[in-house]
């Protein structure tokens, strides 16, 4: 009797539960079928690994870098100009064809915004950043920020960059014929340059250690370890999860402190205004008709300051270190570049650096090839703002469709760059314009939303390379990794074990 009662109770619970679960499965299957047919109905090739479960798990778990994830997608459709894929039921369009890429670049009115999550109520700082903001807010911010990189501002920045490069060289002299980690050296240099020029801080970052509070803060603006990759992936592909999980892309305590210091400076004195880039940011954000506590939009200032860190410290330090790495593995190129440097610059005329580096053809070739191998951004994404028809195929791209382009994959495609893994500055004997016009070379992105700090990065790294190669020779050693292993948990390329090279004073 007791057993029958138990069975009756179980059936009363389990049967409705089974029916409810079955109904959910049926609804989910219809949901999948509906979205899985989206690209099929439009005769667009699709990524067969539905939901990309294996690859997305690898990204989340830190086993696969975000850029490598996109390269795998790109290579899975070698003959298709584009293909569709789905993440959490959302159709995305992955563009492979250079002609289509150029068309997207040219039609800014249709592809004005990046397809990142951007909502002020959820993340008031990121939504105001020029990197994430949508029109018309993006256009207003970009116009204000463009004044940071005028010719006059660049000219004023060069002596500051040079002074830190000279300090770096003085520090490196003690390691003659020793093995150093050039990744640590590069991060220290860029910490000192960025904190001085943009934030007005004397970071006092030593060139042989990571023990520096400013450097640590800059490295962790976007969180630590796996959090960076996870947050960036969710902001890119799963905006609904951002709302649910309340994920913040920027860990902004350090930048907020600096911004508040600038705000106090404006309230307390006029003497320092305009002496730092962040002062100029504040000046461009000031409301001259308002004399209240809301004198500044603090979130706007923090958002733009964080963007500057994104566009400078993280990629630039890797850019400089990887340049030394490739030149150490290719001694003939290092010597050829050094000969050009000595032909243009001596200790007596080194103050003319900016004009000299503009005329150094081989330096420009080397830097262009480094950026091909290691672009500062792995991808370009756009959101279709209104229905657009691709002239090449007649495909109608509907409003709201996210567009994905893998910069790293195109730069490594042998159809465009034969023997793509080889470091060969000769590819750019005639400059980069031909490849840019072909739609196969864009290390700083493209169009009106190209990297804001691209020109500054180029100038700073060229100056650093010229200065260090005038004084030192770099060679591989038994601790040099071949190939370099990168940290899969972070957004940008970052050597996980550093870059060990032998340095010799000339």
From TrEMBL:
Heme binds at residue 451. One of its GO terms (molecular function) is oxidoreductase activity, acting on paired donors, with incorporation or reduction of molecular oxygen. It is found in: Endoplasmic reticulum membrane; Microsome membrane. Its cofactor is heme. GO terms for cellular component: endoplasmic reticulum membrane. Keywords: Endoplasmic reticulum, Heme, Iron, Membrane, Metal-binding, Microsome, Monooxygenase, Oxidoreductase, Transmembrane, Transmembrane helix. Its main location: endoplasmic reticulum. InterPro entries: Cyt_P450 (IPR001128), Cyt_P450_CS (IPR017972), Cyt_P450_E_grp-IV (IPR002403), Cyt_P450_sf (IPR036396), Insect_CytP450_Detox (IPR050476). It is a peripheral membrane protein. The chain crosses the membrane at residues 6-32. Belongs to the cytochrome P450 family. May be involved in the metabolism of insect hormones and in the breakdown of synthetic insecticides. This is Cytochrome P450. It comes from Ceutorhynchus assimilis.
């Amino acid at each position: 009797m007791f057993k029958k009662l138990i069975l009756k109770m179980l059936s009363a619970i389990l049967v409705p539960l089974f029916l409810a679960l079955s109904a959910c499965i049926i609804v989910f299957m219809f949901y999948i079928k509906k979205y899985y047919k989206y690209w099929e109905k439009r005769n667009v090739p699709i990524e067969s690994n539905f939901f990309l479960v294996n690859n997305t798990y690898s990204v989340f778990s830190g086993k696969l870098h975000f850029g490598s994830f996109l390269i795998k997608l790109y290579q899975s459709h070698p003959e298709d100009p584009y293909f569709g894929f789905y993440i959490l039921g959302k159709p995305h369009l992955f563009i492979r064809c250079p002609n289509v890429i150029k068309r997207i670049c040219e039609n800014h009115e249709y592809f004005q915004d990046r397809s990142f999550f951007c909502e002020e109520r959820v993340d008031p700082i990121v939504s105001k950043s020029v990197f994430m903001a949508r029109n018309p807010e993006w256009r207003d911010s970009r116009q204000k920020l463009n004044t940071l990189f005028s010719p006059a501002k660049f000219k004023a920045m060069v002596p500051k960059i040079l002074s830190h490069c000279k300090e770096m060289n003085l520090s490196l002299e003690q390691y003659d014929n020793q093995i150093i980690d050039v990744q640590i050296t590069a991060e220290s240099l860029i910490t000192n340059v960025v904190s001085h020029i943009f934030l007005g801080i004397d970071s006092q970052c030593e060139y042989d250690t990571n023990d520096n509070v400013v450097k640590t803060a800059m490295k962790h603006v976007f969180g630590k370890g796996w959090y960076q990759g996870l947050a960036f992936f969710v902001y890119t592909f799963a905006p609904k999860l951002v709302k649910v999980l309340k994920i913040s892309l920027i860990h902004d305590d350090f930048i907020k402190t600096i911004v508040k210091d600038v705000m106090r400076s404006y309230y307390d004195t006029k003497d320092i205004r305009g002496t730092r880039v962040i002062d100029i940011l504040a000046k461009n954000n000031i409301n001259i008709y308002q004399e209240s506590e809301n004198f500044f939009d603090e979130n706007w200032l923090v958002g733009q300051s964080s963007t500057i860190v994104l566009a400078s410290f993280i990629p630039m330090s890797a850019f400089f270190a990887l340049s030394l790495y490739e030149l150490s593995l290719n001694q003939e190129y290092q010597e050829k570049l050094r000969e050009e440097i000595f032909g243009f610059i001596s200790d007596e005329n080194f103050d003319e650096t900016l004009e000299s580096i503009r005329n150094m053809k081989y330096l420009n070739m080397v830097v262009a090839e480094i950026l091909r191998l290691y672009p500062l951004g792995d991808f370009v994404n756009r959101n279709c703002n209104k229905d657009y028809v691709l002239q090449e195929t007649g495909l109608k791209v509907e409003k709201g469709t996210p567009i994905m382009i893998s910069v790293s994959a195109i730069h490594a495609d042998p159809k465009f760059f034969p023997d793509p893994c080889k470091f060969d500055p000769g590819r750019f004997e005639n400059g980069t314009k031909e490849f840019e016009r072909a739609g196969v070379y864009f290390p700083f992105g493209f169009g009106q939303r190209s990297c804001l700090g691209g020109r500054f990065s180029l100038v700073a790294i060229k100056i650093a390379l010229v200065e260090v190669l005038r004084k030192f020779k770099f060679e591989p050693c038994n601790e040099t990794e071949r190939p370099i292993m990168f940290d899969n948990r972070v957004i940008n390329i970052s050597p996980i074990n550093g870059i060990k090279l032998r340095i010799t004073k000339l």
